[in-house]
Amino acid sequence: MMEMFYFHLHLQAMEQDKPWALISEVGGVSQMMEMFCVLPRQAMEQDKPWALISEVGGDCGLLEDHLDIVKHHFQVLCYQDFLQNPELHGPKVQALLMWRYYPEARPALLRMLPSLKVVSSGGAGVDHLDVAFINGLGAKVSNTPGVVSRATADLAMGLLLASARRILEGHRVARDPETRRIPLNLQGADVSGATLGIVGMGDTGFKIAQRGHGFEMDVLYHNRNRRSLEDEQAVGATFCQKLDELLTRSDFVVLAVRLTSETAGLIGTRELELMKPTATLVNISRGQVVDQDALVQALRSGTIRAAALDVTHPEPLPRSGKHSVSQSHVQMTQKNIETDS
Questions:
Q1: Do β-strands 20-24 and 4-8 pair in parallel, antiparallel, or remain unpaired?
Q2: Taking the C-alpha atoms of 167, 169, 172 and 177 in order, what is their torsion angle to the nearest 10 degrees?
Q3: Segment Disordered: which positions (predicted)?
């Protein structure tokens, strides 16, 4: 009697409408599998869900090295091609794959995607997404938390060290042909033995604490939830229940919080005035966490010694505005910040 084999072709990206293949045994399992492998590839491709991306390559496009990985699970549609006929393409798009915030998940676009199941953002933060609106459309939001924690912690420590030791200023002085001797005030501030205050002790914040501990710094942290005793002991960290306590005690304050309605404007004039006049503010979070005008005033007046900024609001800061700094993304400012007259 001829035996019948049913093969359930599981497509990872599709949880519904899974196709079935019916194959009769002719000469054992090996021959059966050989027959299975010659199923039309085109039919398999057509069963993959469609994913909308900004473009392949470019500043904000999907990396070419990643294209084959994505195409293994999806049929790929670039944004410009989508715009040629959104009525045709919109209903078949089930995934919006974002890289560097593009394609922008605006309501007008999302409403043109009635079959949308997921909006996937390649990064840790989702503050650029209206999660409630997306969920209301029946779609889920995914991100990659922790993917840049180590790199961000390295950057935070690099900004702290460069600011403390005034490395950028020293570099400019050393390259200046008019320089005859290095000013003593470029020696900067000590890092080892100083107090590091971390606002936001998530994955990135904890890795910053590890680096600070390696530099023999006293580590304080303020977080919505206290870390375990084991974590605290691993980096020699002390929990500050109140942000004010951390600000008044720290020589270096590092902001590592997510941008939420609670953290927007977290550091303003009042908070800056609580800090030591010798303190440095390091922001690797989001520009909106700090009141930019209040920070500029604090630097001008000597309320704090310096600020080292990876992020600003707006970003980059307009050079024709009230204030500007010398670099657009990784930025350093001291009391003598560059201003427009």
A1: antiparallel
A2: -120
A3: 311-341
Q: Residue 249: CA atoms inside 13 Å, Cβ hemisphere, count?
A: 20
Comma-separated ranges of CATH 3.40.50.720 domains in the chain: 39-142, 148-332
Top CATH class, 148-332: alpha beta
Domain spanning 39-142, CATH class:
alpha beta
Query: How are strands ordered across the β-sheet holding 118-121?
Result: 75-78, 50-53, 93-98, 118-121, 140-142
Q: How many residues does the chain have?
A: 341
What residue has token string 């021959």? 31
Number of Cβ atoms within 10 Å of the Cβ of 56:
14
Give pLDDT tens digits for 193-210.
Answer: 999 999 999 999 999 999
DSSP 62: B
pTM of the model: 0.73
Over range 29-35, report the average pLDDT.
Answer: 49
Q: How far apart are CA 175 and CA 170, in angstroms?
A: 9
Give which of 282, 90, 118, 262 is closest to 197, Cα–Cα: 282
